[in-house]
Amino acid sequence: QVQLVESGGGLVQAGGSLRLSCAASGGAFSTYALAWFRQAPGREREFVAAISRGGSSTYYADSVKGRFTISRDNAKNTVYLQMNSLKPEDTAEYYCAATLTSSASSVFRGRDRYFNWGQGTQVTVSS
To answer: The dihedral of CA 41, 90, 123, 13: what is its sign?
Structure first.
């Protein structure tokens, strides 16, 4: 199974940007579809963005559409989340997740579709 390690979180002012990275090891990275989720205190973990195995398909939650961009580099076994125009409501622990799939173009937004998770990285946006 693939192991995932997130990095890049931190404290940023509203309107600023952060780039999260998630490095994978122990699996054939290109056989996994990937996603980012986030969880704020007292709230359920929610979907943020997803990307297909080959990177040709992406999907975003309405709350981040136009501000966040998910991408992947299969040569580096890494998935990224570029976050621009950050808002205080984006404050949360961000998790990357991976799921094996035979489809090169499918993306998945359901939390229960993913069986491999990272430990999370904290993003705090101050107003």
So the answer is: negative
Quick check: 57 and 51 in contact, CB under 8 A?
yes
**Which one, of 64, 79, 89, lies nearest residue 30 by Cα?**
79
14 band by pLDDT with thresholds 50, 70 and 90: very high
What token pair was written down for 102? Answer: 């035979």
Radius of gyration of the chain (CA): 13
Q: How would residue 27 be classed by pLDDT, with cut points 50, 70 and 90?
A: confident
Query: In Å, how far are 5, 26, 29, 92 from 41, measured between CA atoms?
Result: 21, 31, 31, 7
CA–CA gap between residue 87 and residue 64 (Å, rounded): 10
Give the pLDDT mean for 73-100: 97
